[in-house]
UniProtKB/TrEMBL annotation, chain A:
Keywords: Amino-acid transport, Cell membrane, Membrane, Transmembrane, Transmembrane helix, Transport. Its main location: membrane. It is found in: Cell membrane. This is Branched-chain amino acid ABC transporter permease. The keyword Lipid metabolism does not apply.
Amino acid sequence: MFELLGIPPQALFGQLLLGLINGSFYAILSLGLAVIFGLLNIINFTHGAQYMLGAFVTWMLLNYLGVNYWWSLLIAPVAVGITGVILERLFIRRLYHLDHLYGLLLTFGLALITTGIFKQIFGVSGLPYQAPPLLSGGHNLGFMYLPNSRAWVIIASAVVCLATWFVIEKTKLGAYLRAATENPTLVGAFGVNVPLMITLTYGFGVALAGFAGVLAAPIYAINPVMGENLIIVVFAVVVIGGMGSILGSIVTGFGLGLIEGLTRVFYPEGSAVVIFVIMALVLLVKPAGLFGRTA
Amino acid sequence: MTATTEATGGPVVAQQTAGGMPAHHIAIFAGLLVLLIAAPFFFYPIFIMKILCFALFACAFNLLLGYGGLLSFGHAAYFGMASYVCAHAAKVWGLTPELAIICGTLVAGVLGFLIGSLAIRRQGIYFAMITLAFAQMVYFFSLQAEFTGGEDGIQAVPRGHLFGLIDLRSQESLYFLVLAIAFAGILLIYRIIHSPFGQVLKAIRENEPRAISLGYRVNRYKLAVFVLSATLAGLAGATKAIVFQLASLTDVYWTMSGEVVLMTLLGGMGTVFGPIVGAAVIVTMQNYLATFGAWVTIIQGLIFVVSVMLFREGIVGVISKWTRKPL
């Protein structure tokens, strides 16, 4: 095979693949944040902890109840989503009349509590998760080796992202949701139960984080702090993309993952900060974000 | 901004006479000073110095949040970076402690200018997310850069001689230096809050479009308060490096940003004395719970939730409401 700018193609495509996987997580998580922000107008700081929760629920389902990965894909997001619904009903609901910053502070506190409890029980060393047989092994594509588990993450997250986009942009339910985002009072006047819709939207956004956690279980170490640093990067992704557009979140998530992967090939020292640098540039050129509407 | 109006306690109106400090503020400052001069005879001096550093840090943060209405979630960047620079200046360049502290403080101010001028381009929660993301960038820089010592941090920072004369290895000298720095910093913040500049800040916080229509260049005011806040946070961080003879990744990590938010929220944002009370409570709590591992995190989270749900005025805010005096 040819060499590209002195980089062997194996290394290049390997890093691009890793970048695409990170991008998958950025996309799902920033999508969840955008959905929640659209209707609730709060930034869900607990998102990283809920992602971690999804991974732990998956691990517990397998190790305590013997439920396999494929069932976990369904059960864990629902379980995490239900915890979200409870949080919304108990706490977040009472803050809608206040400044949105209080929502941020509350969810930050909830994230500390969740992470702290899991640290106390499981410690900070990672738990291994045995990938199901279908996901072990891989294919040789000639120019690179593609492990099944990684291909699966990218496909699954792309499908979930596009399904979410379809529901929100193309169905009647999504139309209600978008209408409620614009003017909740008016939508309520048409007989739609807006508070219920808000609760379920939060639950759904949280379930997306849980789903990302399930996807992460077989490929990353499961530990209580796995979501902490990830969520900060996802915040930067959200600032870059702007939260106005669903498709924008998805494209920005995958795109930034790829850019991060490329940086790891050509300038490894910069890979940890490249997304933050891009954020700075976007703030200089287009403060509202690439897909954002001006506030 | 509605929230901060409520946090400052609505009906309590400043009984500020032109130029002068109200009598009860003078009394509180004097009482605090007496208490702090006596404190090292009763408590472990390093512990009080830690409270002093964090009180200054929280007051600097409160200048931005409580008076500027801007929630920064990345103040650890200025605190931590100043701490590194001060430690490096004292240890490697061999500067005297006061010069080392000034170096750290100035670097924090420059960093605050760079991050602030980008962050003020967005408002509200975006502002919080942007400052958090930039602080994380500073954290990664500190992790990788040569001079910060990575995971080890900068250890065994010499305390040196103040002005080349006074030996700071003596606990008493060090204590009074830290007391002087913290007190001067807090008084400066008090002065800023009650200056015409501070009044404009409050106007922007309450109603930004109206402040713009009155002809104020809102972004300049925001940037100025951001830089002041970052600089004073840096002063706290640099002083802490001399006290503990250590600069480490903990100081620059996002948990530190969260802690200073917590101190301010618990003590009462938009109050003069709230952050001092908040810092004292949180530092004391950490001191007693240090051996319980993750329980510190859990309890901090609980305090966040309880403060936001039931107790948004904070400790001093509630006292201020009872006594009907702005504190």
